[in-house]
Amino acid sequence: MDSQDRDESKNRQREEALARRVGEALDQMNPHGAGDCPDSEVIAAYAEQALGPDESERWEGHFATCARCRKILRVLAASAETPLAEKEVAQLGELVSAIRGPVEIKGKSAGRTHPGFVDWRTRWLAPALGVAAVLAVWFAMRPPWRATNRGAPTTLIAQAPKEEVPLSPAPAEVDRLSRVAPQQDRKTQAAPLSDRSSENARSLNSSLGKLAKSLAESGNALEKAAPSADEAKSSLQPEKEKKLSAPANGREIQPPAIPPPPPPLPKAQAAMEAPAASQTGAKGALGTPASAPLPQSRAQSAAAGAAAPEVPASTNQSVVVTEAAPQVATANGTIGGTIQQGSSKDLPLNGRNYKALATLRPARGYSALLKATFGSTLWRAGKSGIIERSVDAGKTWVSQASPSQEDWLAGAAVSDTVCWVAGRNGAIARTLDGVRWEPISPPAQAAGTDARLPDWTGITARDGQSATITASDGRKFSTLDGGKTWFPQ
Amino acid sequence: MPKESSLTSLDRFLAQYTRLTGVLHAEAMCTRWGLAHEAFAEGLRRSAEKRFGGAHPDPSEVEPYLKSLHLEDLALACACSEGIEKAWEFFMAHFRQDLRHAASAILRASGRADDARAAELADSLYAELYGVRSSADGRRKSLFEYFHGRSKLSTWLRAVLAQRQVDIFRTSGRTVSLEAEMEGEAPREFADRTESFRADSDPDRERYLGRFDRALSVSLAGLTPRERMILACYYVDQLTLAEIGRLLREHESTVSRHLERMRRALRESVTQELQRETPARDGSLAEPPLDAAQIELAFEYAVEDWPFDLSKALSASEAAADPPEE
Hints:
The complex is a heterodimer of chains A (489) and B (326).
Chain A: H1 2-29, H2 40-47, H3 53-65, H4 67-78, H5 86-97, H6 116-140, H7 171-190, H8 199-225, H9 229-234, H10 238-249, H11 267-278, H12 296-307, H13 341-346, E1 348-349, E2 352-353, H14 354-358, E3 366-371, E4 378-382, E5 387-390, E6 398-400, E7 408-413, E8 419-423, E9 428-431, E10 437-439, E11 456-461, E12 467-471, E13 476-479, E14 487-488
Antiparallel strand pairs in A: 1-2, 3-4, 4-5, 5-6, 7-8, 8-9, 9-10, 11-12, 12-13, 13-14
Helix pairs in contact in A: 3-4, 4-5, 7-8, 8-10, 8-12
Chain B: H1 10-27, H2 37-52, H3 59-67, H4 71-81, H5 85-107, H6 115-130, H7 153-173, H8 178-201, H9 205-221, H10 225-236, H11 241-248, H12 252-275, E1 278-279, E2 286-287, H13 292-305, H14 310-321
Helix pairs in contact in B: 1-2, 1-3, 2-4, 4-5, 5-6, 5-7, 9-12, 9-13, 9-14, 11-12
């Protein structure tokens, strides 16, 4: 056994010595001139493992004999994209300092650095950041049932539709939303609180109680501005809207364009859209389309809600919201002299603050928000073929005649006037003047065996003639002549 | 008359790949920068020309290559190279911070630099990126023209900085004092002296080393370039297994296994070659196999002196691996 161990030990010593000698000899070799070193791009591509196997092998052969390139690779790897901590930076500095010129004195006893703790740090940080991100998402998207009474019919729940796409709302939309939200808060307050166990909900109530007091005056003012259902109905007219909004916040609310007819809505959905429908007439805080004329019951509930905000329980007496409810503009700091826009924005609402709520999309969904490359023109397109355009960065939207009633799923805005949209069942459309939309024939070869065309889930466009569409099954088709002919990718 | 490659001029390139470049132009969203189709196609052509050299690649090779590029980054680089203001604004907004971080990481901590110097290093790149140097035809040549979309633009920028900084250090390393140079020469002289002394002591020493040289050539041919690189990183650069793994994008345990296997294979291969009867160098007489004691001596002499020129062995193995093209 001893002799076996000795042999084993001897073999290991030989292996170690031989490998060391080979490694050193490789380094001394350096048969290539500096011009044979790969350029920065090859080194970068090698570091990203973007080179093919043959090319990688070829350059690894060079790296084995070129100390310069190996140093560059080390520095590159160490200067990763994430900002480095001080200690990491210090180690990298040692690394760079250790680089010597061609006239180099080598000491066999050179100590080896062990920057292992760098890895430990980053390994620790990655899961921590992941947990933090999950928590942040959970807080932002916490479902409303944690803070509200689910069963109460009068509770207004701002619930995101399942297919919601978090579009970045325009500032104007956020402002309008902050005007809508307190009304929802008051409704929430009227609901039974028995099962509200979360601390969040209690803080909501206390803060909203204070808010409700200061809103009483503004609510009354609104009552005067829209005392009846008839007036509420006529508030769809721009002139009325100006009168309505001017005393409340001193700012004009842009009149809506041609509002599409409202689809029949389930209760919860109607509840969500209700605030937006009443005050601004049509697309309110969330871009909701105009609602039906305000019924009498809604006007009554509005009057009751505005008249008795101080005692939360008293709102139970007559608030039965079945459709839309009037809004109170609350975001403006001038109302009552106590509400600041910033503070109202921070108030929690059904587990969300106003900002988070602003990211919600109404049931009449927009699947695509399209921004032209430069300028302030935007399009949004979505369910049932709806297309709207804004030329003022999203402050106001104008509905446009759509050539299809299919849902639009994707779009590409090329300029202020050229835009493409694509959607379900092979629907494709294009505008060249920013106003008139024309249907584009989809590629015939995209049809399946049942002659059914696929849903287009992606589109990129270069100009009015060139575009590439992506089907839900991943196939891509391109056109260079405005959709007359398509060729697969 | 040999047919000219379609990569040598833009006209020929467009004639061959006009449809593909059109699609890639759209995919790269060049219209964001107002980058013309021809300008982007020229960037693609340059990239393919660089990749395939003077060869005549088949379209079936070129097309996958072009599709594999970082198209959006390439479009941005082309647009910046063209001096398009919108592209430059975007570049400055999105890449300036990355450049600063990289410069800080590379330079600041070298012990003699500070934040200001790191910023200076990063910012000094902008002049070349914009292209102040005039080439022979007086045209402004931007550093962006050397970016061909094979890596991410951010990685390429870091590589440029890293390369530059390493070269600065190597250049400064040339100014080694005469005393240090003398010290550097001393071990070689000493080694020469000891070599001659040992050569006198064992008449078979040269024979063993000759056998070992040939055995080593055979063994080195069995090492892949990656394995040779690992050897150099481990034994020359004194990198840890984790650092090598970071370079090669492999786990350190994988590198460790690689290294272990490589060392054993090298030793076993050399030993087997020494145990084999081989023709002598002049081809006239066969040399008998070495016994265990002789092999031990051969290893000892080899490791001590190491008079071998690996470049010959490697070039022979590379030539064997890459047969000449017909």
